[in-house]
Write a structure and sequence with these properties.
The chain is α/β, with parallel strands linked by helices. It is built from 12 helices and 13 strands.
């Protein structure tokens, strides 16, 4: 029987288990010294030393980052519809209105022209997603934000280590969020990181994650329990020592697929961009779902479809977007397939993926 090639594979080994055991033996398992060390190390590694606040999920990172940046009722935040629902959810949870706009087709990220057309007097900020590990069009989006006097935020959930013109994602906006969910390029088991542009925003985020208090029983504002545990931070600290090598392997795997895949449209990379390939996403214009099924059933090659239902058509978020037409978003939702690119792939696996894609494409799925 041919072994199944999974679309993603979290890498958690003996070092991570030893780190967890070390924390358990210490007796300090809630937010403590491991979290503080993880924040410092993550900041130095990914965001040029910006203040970083660890929280218990990526969604909490978006929510608290927006609140700490002053987003609330009456505001609008422009977001893509072609992304995970957490992006729009986080805006709605602040009491603000998510305004969905279209993507540009090459990078699957916010179309700056569409963003500009959507700015109103209520627009508080623009929140692009660095989707699949490719940086959004930050040059153009920063110009739009500056022209209209609105803020720029970053959903960098999938983009640890990505950059544009030598500048790392997470350093462009008022705040940025990185997810540490198990399938991301690195994980803490679950969690998120808020990278703030200044210490004031970071302090508000710290208050918000901890019931609104910096010192026990001295609650300064209404907050949440969104703390990261030392157990999760210990896992993340180990993963931080490995993520660069994993990213290099992802990029090597992507280069092999770029050079050898036939019958699909491979993902382009914008000038000046470093893509970290959280997902390797191709387009299949005809019968995408049949293509996915044939890869799995006939060739034992897994794949993922992210995201088949755009946010503006989800029952939860559709009320924010009545009658909205986003043609590039709809086309992407029909055509995208993410092929395995994770660092556990062997050379033989990559050869099998290439052969399977060619066979299915020739057969017309």
């Amino acid at each position: 029987m041919t072994d199944f090639i999974p679309p993603a594979k979290p890498l958690i080994g003996d070092q991570e288990r030893a780190a967890v055991d070390r924390v358990l033996r210490s007796g300090m398992v809630a937010q403590g010294p491991e979290v503080a060390a993880f924040e410092s190390e993550f900041a130095a590694h990914f965001v040029e030393g910006r203040p970083v606040v660890a929280v218990n999920s990526g969604t909490a990172g978006l929510h608290l980052g927006l609140l700490a940046s002053g987003v609330g009722p009456g505001d609008e935040v422009i977001v893509p519809s072609f992304t995970f629902a957490a992006t729009g959810n986080s805006v709605a949870l602040t009491g603000a209105t998510p305004v969905f706009v279209d993507i540009e087709p090459e990078t699957f990220t916010l179309d700056p022209a569409a963003v500009e057309a959507a700015v109103t007097e209520r627009t508080k900020g623009i929140m692009p997603v660095h989707l699949y590990g490719h940086p959004a069009r930050m040059r153009e989006l920063a110009e739009v934000a500056q022209r209209h006097g609105v803020a720029l935020y970053e959903d960098a959930a999938q983009a640890h280590g990505a950059s544009l013109d030598g500048r790392p994602v997470g350093t462009f906006g008022t705040f940025a969020m990185f997810s540490l969910y198990p399938t991301k390029n690195m994980t803490s088991g679950e969690g998120g990181m808020i990278a703030a542009a200044d210490e004031d925003i970071a302090r508000r985020a710290r208050l918000l994650r901890n019931q609104g208090m910096e010192r026990q029983y001295e609650n300064e504002l209404i907050g949440f329990n969104a703390r990261m545990t030392d157990i999760h931070a210990a896992i993340g600290r180990v993963q931080l020592t490995k993520v660069d090598a994993w990213t290099a392997t992802r990029r090597q795997n992507a280069a092999f697929l770029d050079a050898n895949l036939e019958g699909v449209t491979v993902p382009p990379v914008a000038d000046g961009a470093v893509h970290v390939y959280h997902q390797y996403t191709v387009r299949v214009p005809e019968d995408r779902d049949g293509f996915v099924r044939a890869l799995r059933e006939e060739h034992a090659v897994g794949s993922g479809v992210y995201y088949p239902i755009p946010n503006h058509r989800l029952p939860s978020l559709a009320p924010y977007a009545p009658g909205l037409d986003l043609p590039e978003t709809e086309r992407a939702a029909r055509e995208v397939v993410s092929l395995p690119v994770h660092p556990s792939l062997r050379a033989a696996d990559l050869d099998r993926i290439v052969a399977a894609v060619a066979a299915v494409a020739r057969a017309g799925a």
